[in-house]
Amino acid sequence: MRDYLIEKLYECTKKPYQKYFKKNEPWNIDKKQLFNFPKDSLGYGLGNFLHKNHFDIQEKLEDHDIIHVLTNTGISVYEEIGMQYYLFGNGKRSLYLYMVILSGTLFYPKQIKYFVEQYKRGKQAHSFHYLDFSKMLSMPIQSIQQTFNI
């Protein structure tokens, strides 16, 4: 039931967040085009992630799925919350991030150990949350992970 509530909360807030808070331009790339990148690249990894999870590219939210790819974070509700803890540790600050962390901590108090681990992982990585990943799609995933200690 709590997973359902969190997912509904996300669905209700996603559109206003995209429209009013995300100032970046959409990437204007088709999911199928991602498979034209080299197999070890970030672009191909993103395409694989989207395909495997039956997702489409979400306009202006492309970075979110890139973070999944780079950090090897799953898509369950508590893992999504953990990824926000990771980003918080990595230096990202946003109202949306705070909202997810607060609601996630309240709904998943038994996962606090996992959340703290993710925060520490994010803290150990070099700051990368702000990068323009659209310009990095042809780069090898492993190279990015090593460069930023992800």
Describe this structure in words.
This is Coenzyme Q (Ubiquinone) biosynthesis protein Coq4. One of its GO terms (biological process) is ubiquinone biosynthetic process. InterPro entries: Coq4. The chain has 150 residues and is mainly alpha-helical. The chain is built from seven helices and no strands. It has helices at 2-21, 42-52, 62-71, 77-89, 95-107, 112-124, 141-147. The termini are far apart. The model has no long low-confidence stretch (mean pLDDT 91).
The main pleated sheet reads as: none
Calculate Rg over CA atoms: 15 Å
- Integer average pLDDT: 91
Strand content: under 5%
Terminal residue distance = 33 Å
Number of domains: 1
Task: Give a concise summary.
By secondary structure, this protein is mostly helical.
